[in-house]
Fold LemA family protein.
Amino acid sequence: MKLLRKKAFAISAMAIMIIAGIMYGSYFSISRAHHGAEQAFYQGEYYSIQDDLNRRMEYAQDMVYIAKQYNKQQADTHQQADVEPTQAAIDRLRHAKTLSEKYDADLDLENAMTDLYISLQGTNLKDSNERDAKSLYESFQLYKDNYLIEEYNNGAVAFNNQLEEFPTNLFNAIYHFDKVELYQ
């Protein structure tokens, strides 16, 4: 018990507790900011980039269905809509893991969907299918929300810049948090 009454020990114990508190607090602060920046891509009911991608896949899948119906009607002719690139792009986007893979797959889906829509134009679609195809394509384009993408990227850049600033850079040298990937 005499050890607890010594001034040097008390100062050392207090310094260790302060340093441990700072380390503990900084870790959870950086961790929370990192998690928040990453989850901005996925969070939000009907208001996230991932939700927009899901809706774009749904609209593209519906367009593929219309094209397949058209192909059945035109089975005896050589006039067929090529649905394979669109279906492949949907599957690629569905299975993409990283943000850069999702971005590239979404660009492929954009091009494939546009090509499919253009190929269906000027064909002998039923009036209802023609209206549905136009509506699906317009809805598909509507869910490319550049505002959400810009907002997410701005948040990711802000976090990445914070990692490089003092004192966060000192703590990050210990904790090794990765930079948040941009959606581009």
